[in-house]
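Appendix B, record 7
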Amino acid sequence: MLGVPAEVLKVDGHMKFCESRANSGNVVTRGFCSNCGGRVFAKSSGYPTIIEIYAGTLDDPSIFKPAEDIYTSSAQPWAS
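C-alpha cells (predicted):
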C-alpha cells in the first residue's frame, strides 16, 4: 500500500465503502470499485490525513519502492 496525503487524492467514478473497527479502536474505511469490487484504497480514523492506495491498482506500481513493513508481528511464518 502506498500512503498519500488525503488532500491530494481525487477519485473519479463510483466507489462502494465498507467500514469496520480495527483492534486499535479506529474506524477503517475501505473503498472498492463499484463495477468489479476491486480494493482501491483504505483510510483510518487514527490517521485522517493519510489514504493508503493499494499498489496493484496503479498503472505502474513498479516505480514505488517499499519503505517499511507493518503488522510483521502477526505475519504468517511463510511471509518473509
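Remarks on this record: The mean pLDDT is 89. The CA atoms of residues 1 and 54 lie 5 Å apart.
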